[in-house]
Amino acid sequence: MLETEDVKISWMNLNLKIKNKGLNTNQRSIIYNEFGSVGPKSMVALMGSSGAGKTSLMNSLAGRIEKHIAISGKIYVNSEERDPNTWPHIMAYVEQEFYFYENQTVEETVL
């Protein structure tokens, strides 16, 4: 398991498209050709208007693949491309509506 102080996550050419329901094959882009990274011991604020794709971006980076979202591009942990089989087990984030339990550590609550 990776030590938290050693982890860097980065993404390149990341695209997220919402798949339309029904016979219509059009897709609506919510994130287009984005690049970014978060280094060790850093804190990031992701801001934007309602429906801008903040939650979809975080879910994609955390490996919570939503069925109605098509993802393309590359996501890396410490310069290694993510492995869809192990990714959800090593990545988590604290959501806006999140509750901490006083008898658990932050790590226990998130994981």
TrEMBL record:
CC per GO annotation: membrane
SUPFAM superfamilies with a match to the protein in the record: P-loop containing nucleoside triphosphate hydrolases (SSF52540)
Domain of life from the UniProt record: Eukaryota
Location in or out of the cell: Membrane
Annotated ABC transporter domain residues: 38-108
Bilayer disposition of the protein: Multi-pass membrane protein
Annotated keywords: Membrane, Transmembrane, Transmembrane helix, Transport
GO molecular function: ATP binding; ATP hydrolysis activity; ATPase-coupled transmembrane transporter activity
PANTHER family, per the entry: ABC TRANSPORTER DOMAIN-CONTAINING PROTEIN, ABC TRANSPORTER G FAMILY MEMBER 28
Designated name of the protein: ABCG-like transporter
Originating organism: Hamiltosporidium tvaerminnensis
